[in-house]
Amino acid sequence: MKAVVIRTFGDPDGLEVVDVPEPVPAPGQVHIATEAIGVGGVDAVIRRGALAAHGFREGHLLGSEIAGSVTAVGEGVDTAWIGRRVWAFTGLSGGYAEQAVAAVENVLALPDGLTGAEAVALGGSGVVAHFALNRARFTPGETVLVRGAAGSIGITAVQLAAGGGAGAVVVTTSSAERGARLRDLGATHVLDRSGGGGPDAPAGFDVVIDVVGGPRLPLFLDRLNPDGRYVALGVVGGQPPADFGMRLLDAFRKSLSFAVFSSDTVPAPEKQAVRSSQFADAAQGNLRTVVHEVLPLDQVVSAHRAMDEGKVFGRIVLTP
Ligand SMILES: NC(=O)c1ccc[n+]([C@@H]2O[C@H](COP(=O)([O-])OP(=O)(O)OC[C@H]3O[C@@H](n4cnc5c(N)ncnc54)[C@H](OP(=O)(O)O)[C@@H]3O)[C@@H](O)[C@H]2O)c1
């Protein structure tokens, strides 16, 4: 079968479509004929070699999030799964392929009315947005900033904050056109990447949900309201300055909180319950998924190039 391997770490040209043996489900796994493959930010991080110290080496089969049909199950898995259309997390490898295997606890049946492409645009990122807002103890009426809102995590966070009764939903993004699309999803104020450009935007935020990090993080930490909560989810803009935490102590009397949040610490059944509810909402049109483009697996290099060039709004999906 066809799969995508990282031949050489670095730019997208280091990715190659190769023939590999079909995967066989181990005990506790299901085997899936792939229909849609999500191209996530973490795939680009692995491709660049940034996670080599964590065991991701050249030769790695890329891909973590797929949708498709279950064609076989491993020992100990209910055969009722066979034939079901599902979303699955493959565990940071093997997803960019015509067939894949996944642990059954990371597999969820798709509701009628949800396409595979929509499922991979929402399945992994939607739960991150949900639990990040929980971690921030967001309550109705509060002012929320979503930093890096044009990615699939941010797109769901904007909708959940707006739907949850936020007093204002402020976003950062890199163009007026992307800002208009975010307003359409529920943003009330649009800032540029440095936090400027929104003359009528609230000066302070009760909650910041941040996938960007990077050198500008302290600028946004300074804009937390008293008792404000800042939740960092990712570092697509690089690492923040090493001493950024001093801002919290310098503003001691504002009782600010800073948290890092990874959905890895949320038990799988809790994530599946939220994912299932979000899939149902999406199938009914109450939660929007944004698929930037659907490309054949053979065009994986173009897909990664578009991500590196910052052209993607939402998620690129590959089809085998
Ligand atoms: N915490 C968790 O549990 C968890 C789970 C999965 C993934 N992640 C992390 O989340 C990130 C990916 O999330 P995603 O797919 O939603 O994001 P994404 O699409 O990779 O990026 C989101 C947006 O950030 C903006 N951006 C990119 N580079 C920037 C920069 N240098 N400075 C300022 N803004 C920049 C871009 O929008 P504009 O051009 O419009 O500004 C981009 O669309 C990765 O870091 C991944 O590791 C975290």
Short summary:
With 320 residues, this protein is an alpha/beta fold. The protein has helices spanning 41-48, 116-135, 152-163, 176-185, 217-221, 246-250, 268-283, 300-308; strands at 2-6, 15-19, 29-39, 65-73, 85-89, 99-103, 107-109, 143-147, 168-172, 189-191, 205-210, 224-232, 257-260, 291-296, 315-319. Strands 3, 4, 5, 6, 7, 14 and 15 form a 7-stranded mixed β-sheet that branches. The protein has a 6-stranded parallel β-sheet with strand order 10-9-8-11-12-13, covered by helices on one side.
Unreliable residue runs: none
Q: Tally the helices.
A: 8
CATH fold-level label of the largest domain: Rossmann fold
How far apart the termini lie comes to 10 Å
The CATH architecture term of the largest domain is 3-Layer(aba) Sandwich
Number of domains: 2
Assign the CATH class of the largest domain.
Alpha Beta
Bound molecules: NADP nicotinamide-adenine-dinucleotide phosphate
Largest sheet: 7 strands, mixed
Q: Outline, from the CA principal axes?
A: globular
Structure description:
The chain is an alpha/beta fold and 320 residues long. It has 2 domains: 2-109 and 290-319, Medium-chain alcohol dehydrogenases, catalytic domain (Quinone Oxidoreductase, Chain A, domain 1); 125-263, NAD(P)-binding Rossmann-like Domain (Rossmann fold, 3-Layer(aba) Sandwich), CATH 3.40.50.720. The chain has 8 helices and 15 strands. The strands form 3 sheets. Strands 3, 4, 5, 6, 7, 14 and 15 form a 7-stranded mixed beta sheet that branches. Strands 10-9-8-11-12-13 form a 6-stranded parallel beta sheet, covered by helices on one side. A hairpin with an 8-residue loop joins strand 1 (2-6) and strand 2 (15-19). Helix 2 packs across helix 3 (152-163) and helix 2 crosses helix 7 (268-283). The longest helix has 20 residues, at 116-135. Bound molecules: NADP nicotinamide-adenine-dinucleotide phosphate. NADP nicotinamide-adenine-dinucleotide phosphate is lined by residues 40-42, 125, 128, 148, 150-154, 173-174, 178, 193, 211-212, 214, 233-237, 261-263, 310. GO terms for molecular function: NADPH binding; oxidoreductase activity, acting on NAD(P)H. Keywords: NADP, Oxidoreductase. InterPro entries: ADH-like_N, ER, GroES-like_sf, NAD(P)-bd_dom_sf.
